[in-house]
Amino acid sequence: MAGIAQLNLPSGEDATRARIIARNQLARRATSDPFWMKAIVLTLSLGFLFVFFVLPLALVFQEAFRKGWEAYLKVFDDRATTHSIWLTLQVALIAVPLNTVFGLAAAWCVAHFRFRGKQLLSVLIELPLWVSPVVAGLIYVLLFGRQGLLGPWLFEKDIKIIFALPGIVLSTVFVTFPFVARVVTPQLQALGRAEEEAALTLGANGWSTFWRVTVPKIKWSLIYGIILCNARAMGEFGAVSVVSGHIRNQTNTMPLHIEVLYNEYQFVPAFAVASLLALLALLTLVIKSATTWFADRALRNAAL
Quick one: pLDDT band at residue 7, thresholds 50, 70, 90? Predict the structure, then answer.
């Protein structure tokens, strides 16, 4: 009987293989979630996405088209509506390039230079993300308003900043300037300066090195930051609301015009303009996703 039992025992190689299989199974169980947990997490995520994103977006378009295509298109024949659209685009066309230049300069300083106050610069770049946009608007009112610090001097020179385009641009620049810098800085830090130094050693000047070496390396992150900056510039409400004065046909951007229409119980026009703003946001999201995909593919190709 002892001989038969001994014949049934696994050999040394089989025992080792069994232990390896057991360890692999334990590792898989330790690093994978059970099905019920995956189902709960997925259900909660999809439910949250549906309730707080898909459903409100669908309701916006439903209300916008409640009276049909003709009523929807007629909204955009209104002078106040077209002016708000044009003003929104105008502010974005001014603020986004300014923040792109500032973001590149700030990212370059933080990533490549060592100087006193570097940590302070990083904190100041993040500041608009922590300060309420309404507070930012009030700061500009206290500086450039009629009773503000520089208000009397500006009034004497007949320079209008508050309740005019310059004030809207300044407040938009303030709330949007972190985006380009925050996206570009980590990539510049990760890539280092080896290629730039090699180009300078070979005789390239600083400008040529920047355009031919640095920009191609960071182009996808730069585009990503510009897209985020543009999306925030077009949708900004709080800071712009404080400095604009809500003057119809003069200082109302699209978010402000939507508020005015809704407060006047013009629900279809309000939701029609909101649907256009939502379409711009969705377009921004598609471009952002495409940019992320191209950036990931570029990194994979570079790794190969």
Answer: very low
Average pLDDT over residues 142-156: 88
Entry field: residues in the chain: 304
Rounded Cα–Cα distance for residues 57 and 52 (Å):
9
Co-location of 108 and 13 in the same domain: no
Classify burial at 234, counting beta carbons within 10 Å of its beta carbon; exposed 0-12, middle 13-18, buried 19 or more. buried
CA dist 272 and 67 (Å) reads 11
Query: Could you count the other beta carbons within 10 Å of the beta carbon of residue 291?
Result: 19
Question: What are the b/e assignments for 94-106, b being 16+ CB within 10 Å?
Answer: bbbebbbebbbeb
Q: Is residue 64, in this structure, part of any structural domain at all?
A: no
Does residue 61 lie in a domain region? no
In a domain, 179, yes or no: yes
SS3 content of the chain, % helix, strand, coil (to 5): 80, 0, 20
Backbone phi and psi for residue 174, each to the nearest 5 degrees, phi listed first:
-60, -45
CB 161 within 8 A of CB 167: yes
Domain hosting 26: range is: 2-32
Q: Tokens representing 265?
A: 């119980």
